[in-house]
Design goal:
alpha+beta; Thiol Ester Dehydrase, Chain A; 6-stranded antiparallel sheet; 3 helices; 4-hydroxybenzoyl-CoA_TE; hydrolase; fatty acyl-CoA hydrolase activity
Length: 136
């Protein structure tokens, strides 16, 4: 599967006083793309990685161009860049759907987490397979 592209709409309220999409709202776009990509259920119908315990450890965001509000959606491309024992990195680009401009490059480090113990846990084999399907 490699890169996955999602088309997401901007909201009027995403703008800040500088008349472009606020940096916090950019993180919300990335979150929305990540949740949609990993879904509420895995392709085989089992619980998604989001339901079995995943937390965000780190965001890195590079703002390349101001992203102004418009009614047309933006493209958010995402892929898994790295997989470790208990963590994985999701990489993104927010772009024009025709690829004429790239507004943001970003990455999120996610950690598999056991909510009962309050500690990180190793990625299961089925989770690793899902991540491999999204590897860039």
């Amino acid at each position: 599967m490699a890169r996955r592209r999602l088309l997401l709409s901007l909201r009027w309220g995403d703008m800040d006083a500088y008349r472009h999409v606020n940096n916090v709202e950019v993180l919300r776009l990335l979150e929305e793309a990540r949740v949609r990509a990993f879904g509420v259920a895995a392709p085989d119908g089992s619980a998604s990685m989001l339901a079995t315990g995943t937390v965000v450890a780190k965001h890195t965001v590079e703002y390349l161009l101001p992203l102004d509000y418009r009614p047309e959606p933006v493209a958010v491309d995402l892929w898994v860049g790295r997989t470790g024992g208990a963590s994985f990195e999701v990489d993104y680009e927010i772009r024009e759907p025709d690829d004429s401009r790239t507004y943001v490059r970003a990455s999120t480090v996610c950690v598999s987490y056991d909510f009962d113990t309050g500690r990180p846990r190793r990625l299961a084999d089925d989770e690793r397979a899902r991540l491999t399907a999204l590897a860039g």
